[in-house]
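Lecture 7 notes: from sequence to structure.

We start with a single chain of 346 residues. Read the sequence below before looking at the structure.
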Amino acid sequence: MVSAICREIELRKDYLDSHETLKTVYFGGGTPSLLDRNQIDQIFQTIHANFDLDPDAEITLEANPDDLTYQKLAELSSTPINRLSIGIQSFFDDELQFMNRAHSAQEAVESIQNATSAGFDNLSIDLIYGIPNSELSRWAKNLEMAFSLPVKHLSCYGLTLEPKTKLNKMVSAGQVTIPSDENFLEQFGYLMEVAISNGFEHYEISNFAKPGFRSNHNSRYWSDVHYMGVGPSAHSYNGHSRQWNVSSNALYIEAVTKGEVPHMLERLSNVDKYNEYVMTRLRTIEGVDLNELAKRFGVPLQEHFSKLIKSHIDEGSVQSIKTRYALTRKGQFIADRIASDLFFTD
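Now the structure, written as tokens:
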């Protein structure tokens, strides 16, 4: 797999603007923490041979707490990786067991402490709220633990029901009870309050950061910066189209070995780009700028946005500062609905 990933990097060295310096590298999806130092070095050697990598680039690796032994962290600290995103999810054993996580609450705490001891200062963790049978008091304790640890970035996501999953079947059978919409929003609202009180900036709907520790990688995605994804199921965007690789490991390796990148392609119209811009930018603290909207997509779509945004300003879901429109706290609860209302449909 590592050899195939390196081969894809070589095959796609011209996908991005050849004059563009890479500002971020993100090892995510699957379990990249299984890579050893030699494999990581092999990937970076290939990157350096085909791209210009900024010496101060943010280089993130996703990891599960049970993978982050002190020995593993010491190994990672000797690589170019300078940021860890740890999938904590919860600091309670019963919640972790419910979500079929392999780690324990103790391992969750120790992974953060060990990462700091190994020299990683830029740490992000993921937490889940809206867990069935979990009350606000339990969520508050999860956050209290998170803010007591040396964490600089926090990503929090509401648990969602997906069709054909075990959780969905359990809910349908009445075996577990999911929180009501009111309880779900109560947990999200509490998150916003306590994060700010602990010195975290709420810079995107699901993301909070200490000053200077926003996720540069995700921020560039929300800012419509082009990116290249490598590996099975990886997505890429070059401003004109999106593409995604085949998900099968075997088919991916077979094709890349033959010098082919197996992918599907979607060409984006100006309207597609407008809709995606509105959806992603509204999720950020910066919001949508009318001047940028007109420059990117033309005056007609700017006028479309200006006309439809008025009702959301009137109801207090959106605030305007000069030419910039951003969600209020009320609007953050219904961000998806607001974005959908602003889409342009043929």
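The longest strand covers residues 53-63. Keep this in mind for problem set 3.
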